[in-house]
Amino acid sequence: MYALQSLLILASLGVNAFGATYSQSDSHTGTGFLKSFTHEAISDPTHGRVNYVDQSTALAKNLTFASGDTFIIRADHTTTLSSSGPGRDSVRLQSNKQYTTHVTIWNIRHMPQGCGTWPAVWEVGADWPNNGEVDILEGVNDQSPNQATLHTSSGCSMPSSRDQSGNSVGNNCDTASTNNAGCGVQVTQSNSYGPSFNSNGGGWYAMERTDTEVKVWFWPRNGNVPSDVANGETTIDTDGWGQPFAYFPDTDCDINSHFGPQNLIINLTFCGDWAGAVFDSDNCPGDCATYVNENPAAFTNAYFDIAWLKIYE
Ligand SMILES: *[C@@H]1O[C@H](CO)[C@@H](O)[C@H](O)[C@H]1NC(C)=O
Ligand SMILES: *[C@@H]1O[C@H](CO)[C@@H](O)[C@H](O)[C@H]1NC(C)=O
């Protein structure tokens, strides 16, 4: 009896002690991204003024550049485009591996900026939206702050009050009934996105997906970042990370049935359904597609510089 009780106590302690502890399964830096991600030369379903190129084209044109702990993907910033031709050359990367429950930490030094830009770091499964989408870092036209968003099939919504530091901008995650908006949460810090993120040297984004919740954190460079995050340690404990800016619990959303295996994606498009629609109200000049076509130099800073990506399971 005593032994059985001890075993049960130990077992429950074990579950609690290891519940938020993860081991590193993948670590990507520099040229490692070229092997673990595929450049996808596809057309943008969100109607962007973009021309995604394949890996050999991206390397030849120096749109993708990898050396040491620098990994850069960028838009073309030298070519004036004809309005009747393809959009601006850019890069869309998709991880070769898929993940279910996991943690990602992105150490990003610089993100694309400029009127018309629509960059994103996100995760998505096949047969959208049935395997769900998690947007970690996304925005348009240099408008800070960052917003993290879930997009799902029907039957997934978030409680209006929950344990997060950010501000919810919609609690229904069902993409069909929200005109594709999903349920988003904005970071409170303005240096979470765009020019102010870049002038501060960027920072770290992290996402945790379990069977019962999704959490997203942001720490600016020189901020109060947990040491396991800053160092990309081989073992991490998300319980020590403090309150996330975005918290998506399973109160009114069965996470396992709305989220399947997902690929990690980094991309940069222009104009299209979001950046183009609000180009004018975001105080950008004239018409978005015309601006993208005629002002290559405006995209000199339209690049990601990623120090590393680490994935934990
Ligand atoms: C990324 O690319 C995909 C496919 O082209 C597109 O659906 C999505 O809207 C793009 N998102 C951003 C933020 O560029
Ligand atoms: C390619 O881009 C990298 C990163 O911006 C830069 O350091 C390098 O000089 C470029 N190479 C060429 C040949 O332009």
TrEMBL record:
<feature type="domain" description="GH16">
    <location>
        <begin position="20"/>
        <end position="283"/>
    </location>
</feature>
<dbReference type="InterPro" id="IPR050546">
    <property type="entry name" value="Glycosyl_Hydrlase_16"/>
</dbReference>
<protein>
    <submittedName>
        <fullName>2 beta-glucanase</fullName>
    </submittedName>
</protein>
<dbReference type="GO" id="GO:0009251">
    <property type="term" value="P:glucan catabolic process"/>
</dbReference>
<dbReference type="Pfam" id="PF26113">
    <property type="entry name" value="GH16_XgeA"/>
</dbReference>
<dbReference type="InterPro" id="IPR000757">
    <property type="entry name" value="Beta-glucanase-like"/>
</dbReference>
<dbReference type="GO" id="GO:0004553">
    <property type="term" value="F:hydrolase activity, hydrolyzing O-glycosyl compounds"/>
</dbReference>
<dbReference type="InterPro" id="IPR013320">
    <property type="entry name" value="ConA-like_dom_sf"/>
</dbReference>
